């Protein structure tokens, strides 16, 4: 443990920014910034550093000191993992000059030197409030009598603050634009945005600790991250790694011990307990199979093994495998195998190979260095990066409270590789996770290996809305797909949490066969198909990608590779969730053209404007009885008289017999009225024809699917309001209370949002785990369509203008192509 101030300084990473080449250096003193950070905030740290780089004065020098995991500090009662570090700054800065302190959860929107040069007016430090030290300008010599390393180690934050506030002349007020907290942000005025509310931070550092919700200004941070990615900005690199990385290299320098008997399982850092009993450990089999299959699909077969401190035993094994093992070239079908050890020559150029293999190394690397290490792996690979990971166990249920430690779970590693792969989209990557008990799970990403389209399955249930969405996406992708029809059993009534990844909810004999070869992609919609999709992925050891549509199955986005749901479902943001204005459908222009040609001939005498009326029906939420249906019929006939047009109407599967009769009797004289029937021949249904030839639509507000299909035409749509069922209003009271409590965002002591906890946390976690599903709020759908000029409420005058319809389906299809590694391929 480091004890002296000099020892602490030596353990702090410092990033130096000299004047930009070509600019005359300023005579002003260097800007010193100390940042309180921790390993879990690596993503936030990078964006904060980028914001400084982006807004800095090119003539000034900047020294940025990252206070991370300082030894000897008692963390009991800390809100973050760096709470008291700020009070050590006067000593760490040598008790001289000025220093800025920043929490890591901030971004600069102006040059930090403007803050650094602020007039202190004889004060010891400036902050926006006496009790808010999250941004400070510190006069180090003056504050060194009050704040010290020793005091920061043994005393609480409140005590240290109180000591400084007791001397009024020490504290001065900082201009609020240098610490705009959450809703205080003003676009033209604020110079620093502080994401104070821990459960609203867009980078989601502690998913075990909080249920993350949407920050009102998340896009400011996300745009900075996109800029950093485009600039390929990293805080550390091969030439200038972190202090912890350099120390780690010293720890793993290869010894001179005899390692000739080392086996492949040990080199891959696998649990070889199974091998000791005469069987290969499953992860070893997975590595062998995955590498053989992948190398067969690459243009070249050269392999580079990257390691840290294990180069010598790897080289020995490559030259002469232990026991009866075949040579690695033969085992994996490689043309050549080289070994590169960054512990021996960290700055050496590793060259390139078709495939790069890295096992038993990444888990030992400091989190701040992982971005450049992964970048190095991808830069060395022409076609494939293959890694073996032993992840931290996933606690689940948010049991870890605080101060949070970084947990490198499977999802965390998956996100690290996805981020690194964005710089090298032509490289395929695969992770083999060794799970507890010696099992494994394989996840893949990047460019699809091999030729031809992926194997796609569409899971189809008995709900037309679900089928329309799933088939619509499959058709938009343009790949061949197989439809797997599911027949559900009574078991499907169980909660998905109880079903898990299983087939307990279907009649296997009555459903389509679910057998190998397993698909690369499964598309499904609806709650009941979700466990089946997850079962398929499990049987394929995690290699199958899952895309789930709708709120009921995809409410827990972490279970899928992509969960797609409309915004009116009121589901919180998630990296794997894509929110849409309207649901997907399978109404394509080709289908409209075909149906329109037929029904245009049938309805050639129908006067224009032709107004198509799409009638929904009873649902769990809405009531469309005979009285409402009759009123609807009378209202549409009045519209026909006012516009001089004709009515083309159709009921639907959910329209009751009584409502159908009432509606049809009210629209006598309409040009075409279709009564939906389960026994009717599909060719007799004019629904697609009406969609194709109508000049305007009236759609009952209970059906988001029909609204989505009607708005895809780019012609006027009027929404006919349907009353909610009284029983639904009573049933939603509890769900709405949970939702409201989860999003209450109580204010903290300083007028900011306090961290999620207590009842807010419990309600948020109930939603996050799928035990409470927010009721859909179709008023959000109506308002979105109306605000964009796509739809109007029934009763407003018809205006027969046109617009470019939304392209949600194409946006989702493009996201799925990226997910499957078919970027720029249709």
Describe this structure in words.
- The chain has 826 residues and is an alpha/beta fold.
- It contains 28 helices and 28 strands.
- The strands form 5 sheets. Strands 1-3-2-4-7-6-8 form a 7-stranded mixed beta sheet.
- The chain is globular, with a radius of gyration of 31 Å.
How far apart lie the N and C ends?
57 Å
Q: Determine Rg (CA atoms, Å).
A: 31 Å
Q: What characterizes the major β-sheet?
A: 7 strands, mixed
Helix content: 25-40%
Number of helices: 28
In total, how many beta strands? 28
Average pLDDT works out at 88
The general outline is globular
Identify the strand order in the major beta sheet. Answer: 1-3-2-4-7-6-8
Q: What fraction of residues sit in β-strands?
A: 15-25%
Task: Give the low-confidence spans.
Answer: 398-402
In terms of structural class, how would the helical and strand content be classed?
alpha/beta
Topology diagram in text:
Blueprint: H1 5-10, E1 13-17, E2 31-36, H2 42-55, E3 62-67, H3 89-92, E4 98-103, E5 106-108, H4 112-116, E6 125-127, E7 135-139, H5 140-143, H6 149-154, H7 157-165, E8 171-173, E9 180-181, E10 192-194, H8 218-230, H9 243-252, H10 264-267, H11 273-276, H12 282-296, E11 302-307, H13 311-319, H14 328-332, E12 336-341, E13 353-359, H15 370-380, E14 381-389, H16 410-421, E15 428-434, E16 440-446, E17 456-460, H17 464-477, E18 481-485, H18 496-499, E19 521-525, H19 530-539, E20 545-549, E21 562-566, E22 577-580, H20 589-602, E23 610-614, H21 626-643, E24 646-650, H22 657-666, E25 672-674, H23 687-693, E26 696-700, H24 704-711, E27 717-720, H25 726-742, H26 758-768, H27 778-787, E28 791-793, H28 808-820
Parallel strand pairs: 2-3, 2-4, 6-8, 9-10, 11-12, 11-13, 13-14, 14-15, 17-18, 17-19, 19-20, 20-21, 21-22, 23-24, 23-26, 24-25, 26-27, 27-28
Antiparallel strand pairs: 1-3, 4-7, 5-10, 6-7, 15-16
Helix pairs in contact: 2-8, 15-16, 17-28, 20-23, 21-22, 25-26
């Amino acid at each position: 443990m480091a004890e002296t101030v000099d020892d602490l300084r030596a353990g702090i990473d410092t990033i130096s920014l000299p004047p930009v080449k070509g600019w005359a250096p300023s005579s002003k003193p260097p800007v010193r910034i100390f940042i309180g950070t921790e390993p879990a905030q690596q993503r936030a740290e990078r964006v904060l550093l980028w914001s400084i780089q982006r807004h800095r004065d090119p003539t000034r020098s900047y020294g940025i000191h990252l206070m991370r995991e300082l030894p000897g500090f008692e963390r009991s009662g800390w809100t973050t993992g760096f709470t008291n570090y700020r009070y050590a700054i006067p000593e760490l800065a040598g008790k001289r000059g000025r220093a800025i302190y920043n929490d890591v959860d901030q971004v600069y929107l102006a040059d930090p030197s403007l803050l650094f040069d602020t007039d202190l007016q004889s004060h010891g430090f400036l902050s926006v409030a006496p009790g808010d030290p999250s941004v400070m300008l510190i006069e180090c010599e003056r504050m060194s009598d009050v704040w010290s390393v020793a005091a920061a180690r043994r005393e609480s934050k409140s005590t240290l603050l109180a000591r400084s506030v007791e001397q009024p002349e020490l504290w001065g007020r900082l201009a609020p634009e240098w610490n705009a907290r959450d809703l205080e942000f003003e676009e033209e005025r604020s110079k620093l945005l502080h994401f104070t509310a821990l459960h609203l931070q867009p980078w989601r550092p502690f998913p075990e600790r909080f249920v993350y919700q949407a920050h009102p200004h998340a896009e400011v941070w996300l745009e900075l991250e996109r800029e950093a990615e485009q600039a390929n900005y990293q805080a550390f690199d091969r030439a200038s790694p972190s202090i912890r990385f350099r120390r780690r290299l010293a720890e793993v320098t290869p010894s001179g011990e005899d390692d000739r008997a080392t086996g492949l399982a040990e080199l891959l850092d696998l649990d070889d307990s199974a091998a000791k009993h005469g069987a290969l450990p499953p992860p070893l089999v997975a590595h062998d199979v995955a590498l053989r299959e992948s190398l067969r699909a690459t243009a070249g077969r050269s392999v580079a093994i990257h390691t840290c401190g294990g180069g010598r035993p790897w080289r020995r094994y490559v030259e002469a495998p232990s026991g009866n093992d075949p040579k690695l070239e033969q085992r994996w079908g490689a043309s050549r195998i080289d070994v590169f050890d960054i512990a021996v020559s960290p700055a050496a150029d590793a060259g390139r190979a078709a495939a790069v293999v890295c096992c038993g190394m990444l888990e030992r690397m400091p989190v701040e260095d992982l971005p450049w290490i992964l970048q190095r792996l991808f830069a060395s690979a022409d076609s494939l990066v293959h890694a073996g990971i032993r992840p931290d166990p996933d606690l689940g249920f948010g049991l870890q409270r605080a101060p949070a430690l970084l947990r490198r779970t499977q999802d965390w590693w998956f996100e690290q590789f996805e981020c690194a792969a964005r710089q090298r989209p032509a490289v395929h990557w695969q992770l083999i996770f060794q799970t507890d008990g010696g099992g494994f799970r394989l996840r893949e990403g990047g460019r699809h290996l091999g030729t031809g389209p992926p194997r796609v399955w569409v899971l189809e249930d008995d709900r037309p809305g679900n089928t329309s969405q799933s088939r619509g996406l499959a058709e938009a992708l343009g790949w061949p797909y197989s439809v797997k029809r599911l027949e559900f059993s009574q078991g499907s009534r169980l909660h998905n949490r109880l079903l898990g990844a299983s087939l307990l909810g279907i009649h296997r004999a009555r459903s389509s066969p679910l057998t190998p070869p397993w698909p690369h992609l499964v598309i499904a919609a609806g709650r009941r198909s979700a466990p089946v999709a997850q079962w398929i992925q499990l049987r394929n050891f995690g290699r199958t990608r899952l895309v789930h549509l709708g709120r009921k199955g995809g409410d827990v986005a972490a279970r899928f590779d992509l969960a797609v749901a409309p915004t009116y479902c009121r589901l919180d943001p998630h990296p794997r969730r894509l929110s849409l204005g309207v649901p997907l459908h399978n109404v394509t222009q080709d289908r409209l053209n075909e149906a329109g040609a037929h029904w245009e001939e049938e309805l050639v005498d129908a006067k224009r404007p032709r107004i198509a009326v799409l009638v929904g029906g009873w649902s769990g939420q809405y009531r469309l009885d005979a009285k409402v249906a009759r009123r609807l019929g009378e209202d549409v006939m009045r519209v026909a008289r006012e516009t001089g047009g004709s009515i083309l109407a159709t009921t639907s599967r959910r329209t009751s017999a009584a409502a159908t009769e009432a509606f049809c009797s009210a629209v006598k004289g309409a040009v075409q009225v279709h009564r939906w029937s389960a026994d009717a021949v599909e060719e007799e249904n004019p629904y697609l024809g009406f969609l194709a030839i109508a000049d305007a639509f009236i759609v009952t507000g209970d059906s988001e699917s029909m609204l989505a299909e009607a708005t895809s035409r780019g012609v006027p749509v009027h929404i006919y309001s349907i009353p909610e069922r009284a029983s639904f209003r009573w049933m939603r009271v509890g769900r709405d209370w949970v939702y409201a409590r989860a999003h209450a965002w109580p204010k903290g002591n300083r007028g900011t949002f306090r961290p999620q906890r207590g009842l807010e946390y419990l309600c948020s976690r109930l939603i996050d785990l799928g035990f409470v599903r927010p009721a859909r709020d179709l008023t959000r759908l109506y308002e979105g369509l109306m605000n964009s000029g796509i739809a109007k409420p029934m009763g407003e005058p018809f205006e027969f203008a046109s617009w470019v319809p939304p392209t949600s389906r194409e946006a989702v299809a493009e996201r799925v192509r990226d997910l499957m590694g078919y970027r720029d391929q249709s």
